[in-house]
Amino acid sequence: MLLRNACAGRIVKSGAVRSLSTSWWKHVEPAPKDPILGVTEAFLADPSPEKVNVGVGAYRDDNGKPVVLECVREAERRIAGNLNMEYLPMGGSVNMVEETLKLAYGENSDLIKEKRIAAVQALSGTGACRLFADFQKRFSPHSQIYIPVPTWANHHNIWRDAHVPQNTFHYYHPESRGLDFASMMEDIKSAPNGSFFLLHACAHNPTGVDPTEEQWREISHQFKVKGHFAFFDMAYQGFASGDPERDAKSIRIFLEDGHLIGCAQSYAKNMGLYGQRVGCLSVVCDNEKQAVAVKSQLQQLARPMYSNPPVHGALVVSIILGDPELKKLWLKEVKGMADRIIGMRSALKENLEKLGSPLSWEHITKQIGMFCYSGMTPEQVDRLTKEFHIYMTRNGRISMAGVTTGNVGYLANAIHEVTKSA
Ligand code: LMR
């Protein structure tokens, strides 16, 4: 029997076919571990009963257990048996998107009334950022993105994979463990007019350092002077102060000043819908016609990537936010989560002080949101893991959501041990 050799196009006798390629993927090296999710993998592999995970930003109750909010349980009870499995439109759930915009832009937002916001359901905050980065590349192909130093590690991956060049701006001041406002403003002023900036709307990840209201006003003013575009990643609305309205202040200040912003929203943290991947991308436009065009382009970007977003989590969100009683319950539960974290901040600081730590730990309670940017070095973090089975990212970020009354003493003692001779 004669066969055609696929690679060389030669006719050869059966049994004598010699493959030219022995392996398609031999050049592929293992990817480096993700600096955040890799910590969870290492934690899970550790058999020690003492182990503590303060790596990933995922809320735990005071027993260290994942939490499903009561409002979510109730929404699921209402869905049970009533959900068909039809596709959502490319732009996702219209109800969910409408409710989500109210959280960011305000219940009585004129922009919403005037239909000036192009918005689509996104695969949580990451998906919203990625969709925006792809949109930026397609419609502002020569622009770059200014990213704060430091930022959530995945921001770099997102804009890199969308082929948008990255630049940085000063944000964190290591000595004061606070905001480097002067350098940040300098960078905003010296960036070319009309630059794109990535801003964390609240509860900055990883530092827990947010500008004050007054500072946001100055930032917004300077953005106006320079004609910059602000893209807000709002992954923690409600987690900073316990009140989603208050946590949207930065965005509201920019809107008052007439900025046409972009915004990524996520329900991973504030509704505990981590694995459901529910979020929203919105872009404020000049008018309704432009918003229709922008939305159609966002949908067109989504279509070849994932076609349309998943339905279940979006329905949970729209049921909760569409029912005044359930929304009230949600607000109470968000506040409960934020308050537990605030309590753990004080407990960690007090424990370190009681141990006689020679260092100042004021920043633990000054910082806000899910994370404490402790100031520990990568080597100190490595010691925490090796000697105490405590898992956290090597930049010294502690996920305060993983701290409990049961482990705070152990954690403080371990931190004291690795930092006391620093
Ligand atoms: C984090 O920063 O830990 C979270 O946002 C989870 C993630 O996907 O990185």
Automatic annotation (TrEMBL):
Enzyme class: transferase
Pfam families linked to this entry: Aminotran_1_2
Cofactor(s) needed: pyridoxal 5'-phosphate
GO cellular component, one term: mitochondrion
MF annotations from Gene Ontology: L-aspartate:2-oxoglutarate aminotransferase activity; pyridoxal phosphate binding
EC code(s) of this entry: 2.6.1.1
Catalytic activity: L-aspartate + 2-oxoglutarate = oxaloacetate + L-glutamate
Domain (Aminotransferase class I/classII large) ranges: 50-415
Gene Ontology biological-process entries: amino acid metabolic process
UniProt KW keywords: Aminotransferase, Pyridoxal phosphate, Transferase
Matching PANTHER family: ASPARTATE AMINOTRANSFERASE, ASPARTATE AMINOTRANSFERASE, MITOCHONDRIAL
Record's subunit section: Homodimer.
Protein family: Belongs to the class-I pyridoxal-phosphate-dependent aminotransferase family.
Miscellaneous notes: In eukaryotes there are cytoplasmic, mitochondrial and chloroplastic isozymes.
NCBIfam families: PRK09257.1 (NF006719)
Designated name of the protein: Aspartate aminotransferase
Organism, as annotated: Fraxinus pennsylvanica
Organism classification: Eukaryota, Viridiplantae, Streptophyta, Embryophyta, Tracheophyta
